[in-house]
Amino acid sequence: MNKMTKTAALIAACALIGGMGVFAAGKITGTMVSSYSDYDYCRYSDLEKAEKKAGYQIQAPEKLSESCPMVGIRLLEISDTDDDGNSYNGRKGIELEYRAENGRGESLSFTAEPIPAEAKPLSEESSYQEVWEINGQKVYYLRTRTLFLPPNEKPSEEEKALERDDPFFQISYGSEKREQIESTSLIFRSGAVQYTLFDFGAHFSTEELHQFAERLLEEKKSIS
């Protein structure tokens, strides 16, 4: 069944936090992301297959640390939308899920997607709490709250006002039940690809996320 996973919903939410581009038909005001709930691939050696389907190569490690290996790969369908429901920039994303071997099953999601030609630099486009400098690369740190709602449920007026006034609170539709999740994200770009590391539930400390980012950027340096 093709359905929106929490990863896909958070990608869309993070896209909304930043300023959207302007196209001939109007202003981009949203992002639609979908994927299968199950993995498309379960082995790191299958990453090349995912890259062929997506149409580009990415740089991602087999492990974020010795105790946090990759457990699955998903392909994502991504497009930007305007207020009239028109779609632009249709593209395929790649998601790698990593799971900490700590007995609690805590996971992180590392996604990659092509950067639309009209996209602004992250420094101009995104709201964020911190900017880290790692190996000469700027990494943007976000801590967000996302309210997930079933397709037919509407947010309260207070929730609508909170989404309007708080740049780090977002509402996402399409979940099986109502729930609110706090998450942290690290966003950076390399070449024509944007990468995001999601920590669902904000399970990992800032220090741990910084170490994961160092690992990701070491991997990119070794391949480039």
If you had to describe this structure to a student in words, what would you say it looks like?
- This protein has one domain.
- The chain is globular and about 45 Å long.
- With 224 residues, the protein is an alpha+beta fold.
- It has helices spanning 6-17, 47-54, 122-125, 157-165, 206-223; strands at residues 2-3, 22-23, 26-36, 63-65, 68-82, 87-99, 107-114, 130-134, 137-149, 169-173, 179-190, 193-200.
- It has five helices and twelve strands.
Concise structural overview:
This protein has 224 residues and is an alpha+beta fold.
Helix content: 10-25%
What does the overall shape look like? globular
Number of discrete domains: 1
Mean pLDDT: 82
* Computed CA radius of gyration, to the nearest angstrom: 17 Å
Which secondary-structure class do the elements indicate? alpha+beta
Q: What does the largest sheet look like?
A: 12 strands, mixed
How many helices? The count is: 5
